[in-house]
Design brief:
Length: about 650
């Protein structure tokens, strides 16, 4: 249910904040009327450039072509490190909280700079050059940030692969962009479990001809197989170089690529979202500063993993570019118990805390005691990201975690957008539980109907598009510009289509209602139905599968799979297990289906297209509103499907 409550801007923010309500209005107006003027001023104020740009913006959404700050030279690692050395050399850049409570490491800006320089020199000594691709498959340890920044320093393009992904998923990503070097660790630790990262990497590398070297970080005492000539212990390789080598920051063009990050779409394999240097860094620097109303003394913690875009933009690049102290968390919110986040807040005196609704829901279920037994007086601002937050979870976060003092910024954005596009500003925007509220500077959202007509006015709903470029937007799908055009710009010509449904209320506030395409958002993780279905079929047990999102109390969306078994396969528990196992191996444990239903056929049109609308309705338990089934080749499958789902939930 929608909450009608409005939470005003707290006094503590209103007057002191970077952006007050009046300033928001004025700056937003300017950013839309004179985008080039607005963004070039921000770029000069917030970043250090080696050489100025010759043209602020070149764009067309047909090609599509998007270029920001063309001709400008800039180095991301210098902006995140070198420029802070004079005044912030001894300030903590990273506070690392390891898997076990109290296992921590603090890395100052000076130390981080040294490590990044040493690693940059090491990469160069291994022959990595500007434009080369480097894969990073690491746990949440400072070395992950070091590896990213070292790539940025020499102009190499990193692609971080979430350490929970399988060997196959890692292999496909490495091969899609032809990585020359891989960073991994002997093992990762997540709660009570050790994750055999090097072993998984070896399995992947059996089919990755482009990889020349593997740098292995020693996270635990575990010994692992090392392939001579290819694999190097990271610590030994650094020691061997002994601080020698070339660590100078490469002069990088604003439009040179910074990273590729794979994400799921409605069709086919995950695509390599490519971000470039100047515009991306500006977007994350500005949004991190204003959305979190950053102050010099803040201890900021984003609990996301660097394997996702949130970790890129708001654990590493945004905070470090702003000279902030960023807390990096290796473990999970329920280890050793559901009070871990708040115990960590107490111990590190965290002032800004940013996490996902799925974690909030999971923790709320465990009871308030886990929160209230820890001192949260250091907190002043809370944030959420990744999926719509239901008002109940929002209110719990606000009242119980934030003691009703801390505003909540519900930040809407995507891997593709690079940084937050729609969010409250804590000193400017009254909040409503469940609404991402208003567009940030330079963001021009529009709602369109099914035919692509713009829906004007307030109190309306439609599909969310953006009609003007912003500096941090993705530039292409790596190696497949046509897919970029198709996916985002062909549905509604002249507009960038987000894939999300959205409502704009009477006050002009935006409420994201979730994906309207075949992308699922499971516990804040993006998964495509096509890749899930193909993984299920790979089990060898299933002839055909269709996957839909189903309501899930904690994850927001769960995965429901309708499976037509192969002729001789029994519809029993061991088949279910086999299917789940296949998905874990092909993609990741995070993609394991929550419900599997065996059916004799899928609802298809006479031309053979699966009618997902029907499956979605059934999966949502709306058995009586599946709609018109007369166009199906065999309408009788519908009642069988309803029965299967009903029986499983009885
Ligand atoms: C969803 C994560 C509602 C949305 C940064 C989007 C949200 C997808 C919110 C992108 C939010 C993200 N409210 N929905 N505050 N933030 N989403 O690429 O459906 O992993 O399209 O980026 O998450 O997921 P991605």
């Amino acid at each position: 249910m929608e909450s009608r409550q409005v939470f005003p801007v707290p006094q503590a923010f209103g007057s002191r904040a970077h952006i007050t309500a009046e300033r928001y209005e004025a700056l937003y107006r300017e950013s839309v009327q004179d985008p080039e003027g607005f963004w070039s001023r921000q770029a000069k104020e917030l970043l250090s450039w080696k050489e100025p740009w010759s043209k602020v913006l070149t764009w067309d959404f047909k090609g599509p072509t998007i270029r920001w700050f063309e001709g400008g030279k800039i180095n991301v690692s210098e902006n995140c490190l070198d420029r802070h050395l004079e005044h912030r050399g001894s300030k903590p850049a990273i506070i690392w909280e390891g898997n076990e409570p109290g296992e921590t490491r603090t890395v100052s800006y000076r130390e981080l700079h040294e490590q990044v320089c040493a690693t940059a020199a090491l990469l160069r000594s291994l022959g990595v050059r500007k434009g080369d691709r480097v894969a990073i498959y690491l746990p949440m340890i400072p070395e992950a940030a070091v590896a990213m920044l070292a790539c940025a320093r020499i102009g190499a393009i990193h692609t971080v692969v979430f350490a929970g992904f399988s060997a196959e998923a890692l292999r496909d990503r490495i091969n899609d962009c032809g990585c020359a070097v891989l960073f991994t660790a002997n093992e990762g630790l997540r709660g009570p479990k050790a994750i055999p990262l090097k072993e998984t990497a070896d399995e992947a590398l059996a089919e990755c001809p482009s990889i020349r070297h593997v740098l292995v970080v020693r996270r635990t005492a575990a010994t692992v197989a090392m392939t001579p000539g290819r694999d190097l212990w990271y610590d030994e390789a650094l020691a061997a170089l002994g601080g020698a080598g070339d660590s100078r920051p490469e002069s990088v063009d604003a439009e040179d690529p910074l990273f590729i990050l794979y994400t799921s779409g409605s069709t086919g394999k995950p695509k390599g979202v490519l971000h470039t240097t100047g515009g991306y860094l500006l977007q994350v620097t500005m949004t991190h500063r204003y959305v979190f109303d950053l102050r010099e003394e803040d201890v900021y913690c984003c609990a996301a993993d660097v394997g996702w875009v949130t970790g890129h933009s708001y654990v590493v690049y945004g905070p470090l570019s702003n000279g902030a102290t960023t807390v990096m968390f290796e473990s999970v919110p329920t280890y050793p118990d559901a009070g871990r986040y708040w115990e960590m807040v107490e111990r590190h005196r965290i002032s800004i805390f940013y996490t996902a609704p799925t974690a909030i829901r999971a923790l709320a279920k465990e009871g308030d005691e886990f929160v209230t037994r820890h001192d949260r007086s250091s907190l002043r601002l809370l944030g959420t990201v990744g999926e719509p937050i239901n008002p109940d979870a929002w209110l719990w976060y606000h009242h119980v975690v934030g003691e009703a003092r801390c505003p909540i910024v519900d930040t809407w954005w995507q891997t593709e957008t690079g940084g937050v596009l729609i969010s409250p500003l804590p000193g400017a925007t009254p909040t409503k539980p469940g609404s991402a509220t208003k567009p940030l500077f330079g963001v021009q959202p529009v709602l369109v109907d099914d035919e692509g007509r713009e829906i004007s006015g307030n109190g309306v709903r439609g599909r969310l598009c953006i009609k003007f470029p912003w500096p941090g937007m993705m530039r292409t799908v790596y190696g497949d510009h046509e897919r970029f055009r198709q996916t985002y710009f062909s549905m509604y010509p002249g507009l960038y289509f987000t894939g999300d449904g959205c409502r704009r209320d009477e006050d002009g506030y935006y409420w994201i209602t979730g994906r309207v395409d075949d992308v699922l958002n499971v516990a804040g993780h993006r998964l495509g139905t096509a890749e899930l279905e193909s993984a299920i079929v790979r089990s060898g047990l299933v002839a055909e599968a269709a996957v839909v999102g189903i309501p899930h109390e904690i994850k927001g969306q769960g995965i429901g799979a309708f499976c037509v078994l192969r002729g001789d396969v029994a519809a029993d528990a061991s088949t279910t297990k086999g299917i789940v196992q296949a998905v874990r191996e092909v993609i990741s444990p995070i993609a394991a289906p929550d419900s599997i239903w065996f059916v004799s056929g899928l609802p298809k049109t006479r031309s053979g297209k699966v009618m997902r609308r029907i499956l979605r309705k059934v999966g949502e338990g709306e058995y009586d509103s599946v709609g018109d089934v007369t166009t199906l080749a065999d309408p009788s499958v519908v009642s069988e499907i309803i029965q299967a789902v009903r029986a499983s939930r009885a």
